[in-house]
Amino acid sequence: PVVLFAGNDDEDVKSSTSSLNDNSRSRRDFIYNTIGAGLIVASGVASYSLFQSNVYTPSGMQRLPRTQFIAALGDPQASEGVIATEDTWGIWPLDPGPRGVWLRDYQKDILESNRVAPAGWTFDSNNWWLEEHGLIMEAPNFPLQEGKYLVTGGRLMTTILTIDGNRWKLDEGTLYNVTHLPCRSARYQPISSIRPRPVTMTLRIQPVPSRKDV
What tens digit of pLDDT does each residue of 34-74 get? Predict the structure, then answer.
């Protein structure tokens, strides 16, 4: 044990001990109150985000029965821009995560299954997608059809994305604000005679840094 106070007078020792206990209780109550306030704020933010992404539906729009995911290639700091080619903006009508195949299972679940994944999609060695944690995913559907989409990154921003011909525009925020950061993905295609294959890739996949310039 650590001796905090020492003295010859028992009353002084009792007084010091009592004062110490009072200070400890005050500090403890302050910490609990601070934590409680922080949890309330965090809960409020989470509830607002949940409302925006799962409940709020602007007039004239119809909510889909399940969440869909848009694949978009653009400046993360931009609020509008040009869709360079039709194969740079697409959509996954179903969540590609649960339907994916881990790199470690590529041989068993894809090559030995005539390139058909357990979820039923076909792997194309000339055009395949890899999620940042090492999950091979089916390709999205191209192109993204014209119209308005209610989009969110699962954080505070929920806004409307408008696709008009080869142009896109967000009513609020930037592309980064509506990007689902935990599961960003990359598209792999051959360059001349070099053909990237999952079987030759390292399994030491690192998540993409959460920076606004990525």
Answer: 444 444 444 444 444 444 555 567 778 887 888 899 999 99
Both tokens assigned to 212: 């606004």
Angstrom distance (rounded) from CA 174 to CA 78: 5
Query: pTM above 0.85?
Result: no
| DSSP states along 180-202 | -GGG-EEEE--BTTB---GGGS-
Q: Residue 101's beta-bridge partner residues? A: 136
Burial of 104 (0-12, 13-18, 19+ CB in 10 A): exposed
Q: What is the pLDDT of residues 146-156, one digit of tens each?
A: 999 999 888 88
- Which residues, 6+ apart, have CB-to-CB distance to 86 below 8 Å? 142, 143
* Tokens 């309330």, residue located: 40
Q: How many CB atoms lie within 10 A of CB 185?
A: 22
